[in-house]
Design goal:
The structure is a single chain. Strands 1-2 form a two-stranded antiparallel ribbon. By secondary structure, the protein is mainly α. A hairpin with a 2-residue loop joins strand 1 and strand 2 (62-67). It has three helices and two strands; from the N terminus they run ααββα. It has one domain. The longest helix has 27 residues, at 78-104.
Length: 105
């Protein structure tokens, strides 16, 4: 049933088989693609933070939108591009791994 639900909803990332009601703590979550998907999303968010143009700043209790000046050069920063490319690669790999797990059910 979980395999059909994974195919229908498009996710099977955190499905873990257990014969008991509780799953004991372990590092078994490293063997599931969901952790790597979340890691890729987090890395992409961190890598694209400096491409924003506006930032909310509180001045005297009022929130105002001010022009954001990035420290690393925005889109011209090679480390930020590398982080974005790595996050897309990890996300594609984790998605393919998850699809393989769903098809194997």
């Amino acid at each position: 049933m979980q395999g059909y639900l994974g195919v229908i909803t498009g996710t099977n990332s955190f499905t873990m088989a257990s014969g008991t009601d509780k799953i004991p703590p372990s590092l078994d979550w490293l063997a599931h693609p969901g952790f790597y998907e979340i890691m890729a999303y987090t890395l992409a968010a961190a890598a694209t933070y400096e491409i924003s143009r506006w930032q909310n700043v509180k001045v005297d209790g009022n929130t105002k939108a001010v022009r954001f000046h990035g420290l690393h050069g925005g889109w011209h920063s090679h480390p930020l591009w590398l982080g974005l490319v790595v996050s897309v690669g990890v996300l594609l790999t984790a998605g393919a791994w998850e699809a393989q797990n769903i098809v194997a059910l």
